[in-house]
From TrEMBL:
Keywords: DNA-binding. One of its GO terms (molecular function) is DNA binding. The keyword DNA-binding applies. PANTHER family: ACREF/ENVCD OPERON REPRESSOR-RELATED, ACREF_ENVCD OPERON REPRESSOR-RELATED. The keyword RNA-binding does not apply. Transmembrane segments: none annotated. Residues 26-45 bind DNA. It comes from the Bacteria. This is TetR/AcrR family transcriptional regulator. Residues 3-63 form the HTH tetR-type domain. Coiled coil: none annotated.
Amino acid sequence: MPNTTEQRIINNTIKMIDNEGYQNISLRKLAQQLNMTTGAFYKHFKNKNELFYRTALVLSQKIVDWLPISNEQNAFAQLLAMAQNFCELFQTNPRRMDFLFFNPTVISIYHQTNTEFPFLSFARDLASQVNPGRLSDEDFFNQIWSFIQGYALLIKNQVTNYDPNLVKTTLLELKGELK
């Protein structure tokens, strides 16, 4: 659990991501907003990459906590709800989602099968529960995730609008239930 100063730094980083985008965050500007020196910042985080990593962990948990998913739903219904809410987040919090899924610091971590990110762990778990077994859990997750993330980007970029029937049909096709 981060200490109070670390939590303040992370919370301010999230505000800066939401307002300016992660690409425009400088440690100097961040420290200024918190009335601290950059030297004081380095007592809590060894560098910007560590700050981004820890911020991503917090945001990933916030997404899981925010998802209105019931354990009483079956895994497929949970996956559909997750996809819908993921697409909604790309519309309502595009900078935050860009940070979580497209910033180089976090992407390098995704290359490992990292279980520290609650949202991705949740998505992987649902995919493995839905997997009909024709592919490995990892390959099946990659197929589902590619569709959900790609579709969310199309919506974010206003190429299309969210269509729950398209999502359901595509996920059923990936499961092999529709031909």
